[in-house]
Amino acid sequence: MSKIFVTSDHHFGHRNIIKYCSRPYGDVYEMDKDLIEQWNQVVTNKDVVIYGGDFTIKNDKKYAEKILAQLNYKFIILIRGNHDYSAVVSSDKWSMIADSITLRISNNKRKVFIQHHPYNNIPTDGNIRLHGHSHGTLTTKFLTFDFGIDSVANIIGNYQPILLEEAIKFAEEYNNEL
Known about the structure:
Layout: E1 4-7, H1 16-20, H2 28-42, E2 48-51, H3 61-70, E3 75-79, E4 94-97, E5 100-104, E6 111-115, E7 128-131, E8 144-146, H4 149-156, E9 162-163, H5 164-174
């Protein structure tokens, strides 16, 4: 059975992100290799990944395809981040959408909005907002959660995608509607 994972902000190929986010890597090659390995530890070729933006930093289609070829997944839905250029294009296993997606989870009465940029100061009217972009530096409120790998690493200690249900749970447990 397929699982649905969420993740964002790997910044494959981005040397400066190591320093900016205090990632424990000596260089970009070590980082990319480890991030691929950690992804593949939890995601199988039967799973869907909702990717919240900033897959790479490079405007290099061959580089993006090289990374994609090493990752496990059945299909990836990419929400375009501010560092996603034309290098990442849609294919039969990858679909890029412009801004955000909205889901209605059957066992959850709330809508789930998934986007790249946080809109942290806007109430969610009881719905859940999942986002990336802030690399765990934003104090969230209003039923939001940063599911980017740096935020997840701060909470669970690794740089792996998490299940959609886990991200919803984090939004509900760590943030109260104010």
